[in-house]
Amino acid sequence: MDTRASLSILLLLFGVSQASPLTELLRVFVSEPEPLDITTRILESNNGSSEVLIEADLVFPKTRNALNCFNNNCFWKKNSNNIVEIPYIVSGEFSYNNKLVIANAMSTFHSKTCIRFVARSTQSDYISIENKDGCYSSLGRTGGKQVVSLNRQGCVYHGIVQHELNHALGFYHEQTRSDRDEYVKINWENMSPDMAYNFQKQNTNNQNTPYDYGSIMHYGRTAFSIQPGLETITPIPDETVEIGQRQGMSNTDILRINKLYGC
């Protein structure tokens, strides 16, 4: 889908007047690079959140004892056309520009996968995107109203929106993969002992895909560090590999969605 078509869809989606300046729309699509990596931004935004969070931005499950998303119960369902429709609503607290960022982040799912975020009508299971006290989501489909929090002051960025939506689809953080010790070194000495639980390995379904340093779901190097600049995660064997990127979903992120949901 070319840029002109994408802009037209967004105009229809949010009821924007045709008189709206084109430069304002382009500013959303060609935005200045985010100065902070995703993890730093999320941690700063979630500081003081009223939610009990695991791994920085996963809502602690109230109905199960641990994070668990490796069976069909936490995945969204396909319809008869082999499309995975995820009903959603967006809070009226978000501005016009906020909504454009959210819609643009969703458009990659629409163009590259069989996931479709659709406006909720009467569906009982749906995502409610709200301006709450941080950037966070539950893991996978939980049933009923499922809040994805994107605080207007620190979370409405392309990469963060895609990061949280991936959690809602059932994806963990990359560095908690069951085989992560082959690819990254966790520097336990550089974090407070009471933060170590955030780096617990999960029983992940890696879908025969390679470890992805460039995943939108990967922490940055200094996540939960006891002081600025100290690395808690170091790639191996090449320490210069970039991690914690903020631009958007990688090709492997997209591949995994398609494999998991049978696109």
Helix content: 25-40%
Global morphology: globular
Number of domains: 2
CATH superfamily of the largest domain: Collagenase (Catalytic Domain)
Describe this structure in words.
The protein has 263 residues and is of the alpha/beta class. It is globular. It is 26% helix and 13% strand. Helix 4 (96-112) packs across helix 5. The protein is built from 6 helices and 9 strands. The strands form 3 sheets. The chain has a 5-stranded mixed β-sheet. The protein folds into 2 domains: 38-169, 3-Layer(aba) Sandwich (Collagenase (Catalytic Domain)), CATH 3.40.390.10; 174-204 and 212-250, no CATH class. The model is unreliable at 1-9, 14-34 and 62-66 (pLDDT under 50). Its cofactor is Zn(2+). Pfam families: Astacin. It comes from Sinocyclocheilus anshuiensis. It is an enzyme of class 3 (hydrolase). Its EC number is 3.4.24.-.
Short description:
The protein is of the alpha/beta class. It is 26% helix and 13% strand. The protein has helices at residues 3-14, 22-29, 38-46, 96-112, 158-169, 251-260; strands spanning 53-54, 58-59, 84-90, 115-119, 126-130, 135-136, 145-150, 184-186, 233-235.
Defining traits:
263 residues; alpha/beta; 2 domains; 5-stranded mixed β-sheet; 6 helices; 26% helix; disordered N terminus; protease; Peptidase_M12A; MetalloPept_cat_dom_sf; Peptidase_Metallo
Q: How do the strands and helices of this protein lay out in sequence?
A:
Elements: H1 3-14, H2 22-29, H3 38-46, E1 53-54, E2 58-59, E3 84-90, H4 96-112, E4 115-119, E5 126-130, E6 135-136, E7 145-150, H5 158-169, E8 184-186, E9 233-235, H6 251-260
Parallel strand pairs: 3-4, 3-5, 5-7
Antiparallel strand pairs: 1-2, 6-7, 8-9
Enzyme class: hydrolase
EC number: 3.4.24.-
Domain Peptidase M12A: 65-263
